[in-house]
Design brief:
By secondary structure, the protein is mostly beta strands. The protein has one domain: Electron Transport, Fmn-binding Protein, Chain A (Pnp Oxidase, Chain A). It contains 3 helices and 10 strands, in the order βαβαββββββαββ. A 4-stranded antiparallel sheet has the order 1-6-5-2, with helices on one face. Strands 3-4 form a two-stranded antiparallel sheet. A hairpin with a 3-residue loop joins strand 5 and strand 6. It starts with 6 loop residues before the first strand and ends in a 17-residue tail after the last strand.
């Protein structure tokens, strides 16, 4: 959501156990799983952290941020410091500055992230369906150049 400094935003339902930890520690992580982790990721959405220690599903490690758990099995992990929380009707929107990034070397091409190697997936609602990220369809800030008068 911001390039300099690099920032991202994520919305979590206000009922999630995670929200309290983010508020308390002012840090959070975003771990981008590959489709190989779909079953474990879906389980994490089915079971609350209030009832189960979901960290046991993964090999967790910590970078510079002591309260932003990173998942070794995820090809991309980002550690963030909390900049702002926006209260929405059903969700909390957490805005964080990316302080650290860890990428599995196997997902890099010429030193840059390669989405096809990363094999991420996304969730759409209200159909509650997971989708594999597909093929490249164009280049940003180039695809529309022919429309510039």
């Amino acid at each position: 959501m911001n390039s300099r400094p690099p920032m991202l935003a994520m919305a979590l339902n206000k009922t999630h156990y995670t929200n309290g930890g983010i508020r308390e520690h002012q840090e959070f992580s975003v771990n981008v799983p590959s489709i190989d982790l779909l079953e474990k990721v879906d389980y994490c959405g089915l079971v609350s952290g209030r009832e189960a220690d979901k960290s046991k599903l993964f090999e967790v490690f910590y970078g510079k941020l002591r309260n932003a758990p990173l998942i070794r099995e995820c090809p991309l992990c980002l550690g963030c410091t909390l900049i702002e929380t926006v209260s929405l009707p059903s969700n909390d929107l957490f805005i964080g500055e990316i302080m650290e990034a860890y990428a599995d070397g196997r997902i890099l091409t010429a030193g840059s992230l390669d989405v096809m190697k990363m094999r991420p997936f996304t969730l759409t609602m209200p159909d509650n369906t997971y989708w594999n990220v597909g093929e490249k369809v164009g280049r940003a800030w180039d695809a529309g150049r022919k429309l510039i008068g």
